[in-house]
Amino acid sequence: MKWNGLPLLIFGSGGISKETYNIIKQINLHNGQQVYDFLGFVEDDISKVGNEIIDGYNVITCDNDIAEYTRYFPVIGVVIPIGNPKVKSIIYNKINNIRNIVYPNIIHPSVKFDIDNVKLGIGNILTAGVNLTCDIKIGNFNLINLNCTVGHDTELKDYNVINPLVAISGNIIIKNGCLIGTGAKILQELTVNDNSIIGSGAVVVRDVEENSTVVGVPAKLIK
């Protein structure tokens, strides 16, 4: 049997999911072959099954039926491009016991990074224009959106959502489940602790506490 690429599902069918589909399409075009065999979208609402989302691809199953759908594949890939860190982790924890599911890193061909100097876990999505320098560690299920920059000796742990045009300086630690708004800037040698939110356009000049929200220039605590 001819290999047509890794069979692949995308969880969700909103804007970020459609953008992720476009990255998959670009990866296949860039490589001149089917790296991924995209099958369709997965939703939490069974009534959405059959809805066309983009380019003739539909919602083909729902969360509760994913084990039954995937059992016919020796191996199948899943991407979770959800913009809410908590929802990303909930989805993964719901399906992580399905042994034939794998979680590829989806990396747009335009991303700039040195494979020898950037360590990636699983399930990450790096969109167009992302620039990673050196000695960077990226954990699992992070979304790094359009035209973000990540400086040297920085670590992103798990389930973080980094929105477009964010500038992360060197020697930064971003822990788990953080949401960083469009255009935010994080100055060097700081820690962004678990489940924190940085507002759009904020300039972070000190550590961000766990479960907090900061906004403004310079960023100040509001929650």
From TrEMBL:
Protein name stated in the entry: Acetyltransferase
Residues in PglD N-terminal domain copies: 8-95
GO molecular function: transferase activity
Site (Increases basicity of active site His): 153
Spans traversing the lipid bilayer: none
Repeat among keywords: no
Active site (catalytic residues): 152
Organism in which the protein naturally occurs: Senegalia massiliensis
Keyword terms, alphabetized: Transferase
Binding site for substrate: 83
